[in-house]
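To: structure subgroup
Subject: Chain for Friday's discussion

All,

I'm putting the inputs and outputs inline so they're searchable in the archive.
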Amino acid sequence: MSASDIEHFKKMLLEKRRDILSDVSEMEGEALKKSRMDAAGDLSSMPIHMADIGTDNYEQEFALELMNGERKLLQEIDAALERIEQGTYGICEGKGAPIAKARLEARPWARYCVEYARMLEQGLVPEQEQSMLESGEETESEES
């Protein structure tokens, strides 16, 4: 992969990271705003009906789950940026083969080539090997 390709993907990752941080901050602000109004006893925002209370709780839980998902994606993006710094970006962590540029265009934080990702999804990668990959350790096949 050329230096210009790497720079292109780094720019994509940084833009996505910035977007996510903005979204998470906005969601946190909304979720906390509702909590603060409830804690302050702001009766004008208090639901009158039990169904309204349930809806408010659902919305808050939904927002928290979205934030959790976004935080996980941020971790993946940070890991991809680290791989760029280490010179291993664009190389499948499972097979050691290059990841297709089309895949990186779609998911610039991708750790695995399409073939290996399918194997992971189908459970064809032994659990021990999968956990070692996720923790960043070398697998037995790589050591040989």
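Points worth raising on Friday:
The chain is about 70% helix and 0% strand.
The mean pLDDT is 79.

D.
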